Amino acid sequence: MTRIPTLRQLARDILSCLPVLLGFLTIHSALAAAYIVPSASMEPTLRIGDQIGVIVPSYGLSTANLPFGTLLKPSAETDSRLFGRLPHRGDVVVFRAPANLHQTWVKRVIGLPGDTVALVHGRVILNGTVLPWKDMGPTREESRKNVWRAAERYEETLPGNIRHNILKMSQDGDLDNIAPFTIPPNHLFVMGDNRDNSADSRVSVADGGVGLLPVWNLQGQARAVLWSWRDIGRTALVL
């Protein structure tokens, strides 16, 4: 006859497995994680619905990496990272959104602390030099799911010959002209590759954007598209 476990026995079994489960979750969140891209802000690099793999300790660890990290944000504007290092220009990073720390966003790092940044007619001027563009021809932007607009694709080159593709719909939109400013310590200037559809460092936190991103908010570096339901050919695409 099958023996039915008592409630006490079930509780005991669950508790005995708890350290193993917690250990697995800690290792997973400390080393790597996966995120679903919810918006078009990183097209053409990332598309709506892409599942991306993130290396968590790429820039060290902060309380932003913890599930309850929203409660542990440092009050002072300090680095506050264990084994921390700055991203490289061109890295695709995931971070707690300054406008809502419960959300994780993804953008590309364009400027580092001490860099001077400006935009003129959509062109980024980094430390006095206009980032080169190469016109890659017409394409389409999926502004939201199954809604498409005509766009132009450009290859933009960062210092160190770091190249990535961007999308543009116009050259004189609301975010295309910004006076020069210098990025303060422990902050980053990040942008979406979809330059006309991204609430990034060009948009203040008060207006729902990123503003200058505190290094504390970083959660890791996006390294690959793990899976794309809408375009299987993008699976295992290295970023």
TrEMBL record:
Its EC number is 3.4.21.89. The keyword Hydrolase applies. InterPro entries: LexA/Signal_pep-like_sf, Pept_S26A_signal_pept_1, Pept_S26A_signal_pept_1_CS, Pept_S26A_signal_pept_1_Lys-AS, Pept_S26A_signal_pept_1_Ser-AS, Peptidase_S26. Residues 14-227 form the Peptidase S26 domain. Keywords: Hydrolase, Protease. It holds the Pfam family Peptidase_S26. It is a single-pass type II membrane protein. It is found in: Membrane. It comes from the Bacteria. Its main location: membrane. The keyword Translocase does not apply. It catalyses: Cleavage of hydrophobic, N-terminal signal or leader sequences from secreted and periplasmic proteins. Gene3D superfamilies: Umud Fragment, subunit A. Belongs to the peptidase S26 family. This is Signal peptidase I. It comes from Gluconobacter albidus.
